[in-house]
Amino acid sequence: MVNRAIITVEEDMEGERVDALVAEQVSGLSRTTVKTLIKEGHILVDGQACKSSYRLNEGQEILVEIPAPEKVETLAQNLPLDIIYQDKDLVVINKEKGMVVHPAPGHQDGTMVNALLYHIKDLSGINGDLRPGIVHRLDKDTSGVMVAAKNDAAHRSLAAQIKDHTINREYVALVHGVIKENLGTIDAPIGRSKVDRKKMAVVGNGKPAISHYQVLQRYRNYSLVKVTLLTGRTHQIRVHFAYIKHSVVGDPLYSSAKSHFNLDSQALHAKLLGFIHPVSGQYMEFNSEMPEYFQAIIRQLDGERT
Description:
The protein is an alpha+beta fold. The protein has helices at residues 18-25, 31-39, 112-119, 152-163, 236-243, 292-301; strands spanning 2-8, 43-45, 61-67, 83-86, 90-95, 143-149, 168-176, 183-187, 190-192, 200-202, 210-218, 222-229, 268-276, 283-287.
């Protein structure tokens, strides 16, 4: 079923952009959604397609069609899943490199959620059918430890800890260049890149993002760092280290520097996750060893320590 709305441009609306006016006049539509509807031909001005930036004239008629959302069913799939710990409230997983966390366009199956639905019978429903149990995420090619919620109460507790920055999250990354200081903090806001909408970037109007780091080992051309996140923005570590000119080795999105490890993804691993259990109130901490490909790189670099 398609929902329709008709807006007649009045005198005080003249000169406004069509995307801004529709977002203002139609409840529940963000400006981003409106732009998508315009691009797909679901918004017409006097029966004609237009651009989002089109400026309106008094008396024009805007037809807005809102297609019904497609029903998407997330299937349980018998996929390997490294479960570190579970109880009646939560499950802790060691996610492998290359596994997408939840279904999205281009990745409708083969995700960690598909595996969770097979191995775990009860998952929280707060995030709907596409992301049951998912409290936080890791990038597809970032490996390491994650927690998922089995019920809504556990989900709310864990989500609150993330929001309050009380969850302990430590990563290890191999970055380009030799970082001089042993300890450092990158405090730089992150938002959508204005140049490439597929990327995030440090931007003045971005959301606060803080990463603390410690150099674990220096090599001739690289540094192995431990990174502790105070915030959890999309691609935060990758963006922050690219920003300070020490991009993560192998990062296909944020690094143009060449390495001799023939990687097709970033050398980044979520090593530690610590949180307060939603029911018992006890602090729990889980560690994940670096995957073999990462360990092999470190062995290769052992002769280049500085």
